[in-house]
Amino acid sequence: MRLAVAMRIRLLGTGSADGWPNAWCGCASCRAAAQAGVVRGSSSALVDDRLLIELGPDTPRAAVRAGTDLSRVEAVCITHAHPDHSHWPAWMWRGWAAGNRPLTLLAPPAVLEVVGPHLDPTVTPVVAAPGGRHTLAGQDVRVLPATHAGPDAGPAVLYDVTSAQGRSLLWATDTGVLGEQALALVTGRAYDAVLLDLTSAHLPAHHDLASWPEQVAELRRRGAVVDGTAVHAVHLGHDNPPPAELDAVLAGWGATALVDGQVLDLGAPAAAPLPSRRVLVLGGARSGKSAYAERRLAAEPAVTYVATAPPREGDAEWAGRVRAHVRRRPAAWSTVETGDVSQVLRTASAPVLVDDLGLWLVRVVDAADAWEGPREAVDAACDELVDSWRGCRGTAVLVAPEVGSGVVPASASGRLFRDLLGALTGRLAAASDEVVQVVAGLPRSLR
């Protein structure tokens, strides 16, 4: 049983090796970060003022700027020998201080080899090996393998830290997609907080916006991330979108981007924001609306994808489009091809993605032979869809095309489709928790 006693984590840095913004860079992401005053140094964390994770070049001064110091640190855990995580001059600086207390350094062999000559006699070096378990500064520290640097800089590791009161933290940077050994070690851990690499350098040794939510989804399937787990992005770099845009993306996954100086109190009462249950995603043709909708649910352990398109026998071009959509969906998602969206919304046990409303409407009008005939059956189907959307109790994302934009269709059927779709979209928007319009791949919140 967990007790309501906090583990305090002070983020001394949340950035990648070059920080964010990179002082040499004038890209849109760096400029936006600088203008917003969101400056991130190399990632490092201080746990309960006694355990330091990572000791990079920014760490000592970041501690002072945060209103604390490192004099009470009893143990330092370093993941690998890259200089933003292990800065050997910092140990020389410590040696110049008076009254240093005994300290344990837990790190991979490559780190100990580099910093060893600079350690004073109060420091006891200990090799960090995957699967190892250590009691340091009152914390139970388990060592996990990272998907990052090889023997020349490590081998790189990650840390699972648990307090005496049962509060737990997964420090998962730097790493790409976790291997089976690491996943086995985190299975069932139900962490209070997961801090996961989001460098977005598009390298297998780091996570980006494609692999990051899929990793969170896998951690959910493994029971490492549960409903009460706070999921955060760290080791953030300028290959991410500007900070405000990144915050919006992460919020859709129930996560946040940490900032330097932020303090996490694990176990302290906190009001969790209510997630959006019904999300309506609007956009024109090729706007990126489907990709955005899929990304919104990418961190879920399982999703039911509802494909509403009616069959098109013998249409090779259409079949190619369908295959492209299928390829980009995670393997854990299930696909249902149906026009009965209302039934799926009423009975779904997992989050649902419906793509899309326009194809569903074509299917309904075709089935009712209503392009030129009576529309009572179409009106009834629309009423049923709105009712099931309004009553949906799970998470659902519905993609809807935008048509018209002032252009009057040339045919009667085109005008009918425009009118029906516009009216139905308005009704669904009124019943949605969130409405997002996607233009040129960029989401804009309407509600």
CATH architecture of the largest domain: 4-Layer Sandwich
Q: Give the low-pLDDT segments.
A: none
Shape: elongated
- The level of helicity is 25-40%
Strand order of the largest sheet: 6-5-4-3-2-1-14
| Count of the separate structural domains | 2
Span between termini: 40 Å
CATH topology of the largest domain: Metallo-beta-lactamase, Chain A
Quote the average pLDDT: 93
CATH class of the largest domain: Alpha Beta
Largest sheet: 7 strands, mixed
Task: Let me know the CATH homologous superfamily of the largest domain.
Answer: Ribonuclease Z/Hydroxyacylglutathione hydrolase-like
Q: Specify Rg, calculated over alpha carbons.
A: 26 Å
Family: Belongs to the CobU/CobP family.
Protein name: Adenosylcobinamide kinase
InterPro entries: CobU/CobP, Metallo-B-lactamas, P-loop_NTPase, RibonucZ/Hydroxyglut_hydro
Keywords: ATP-binding, Cobalamin biosynthesis, GTP-binding, Kinase, Nucleotide-binding, Nucleotidyltransferase, Transferase
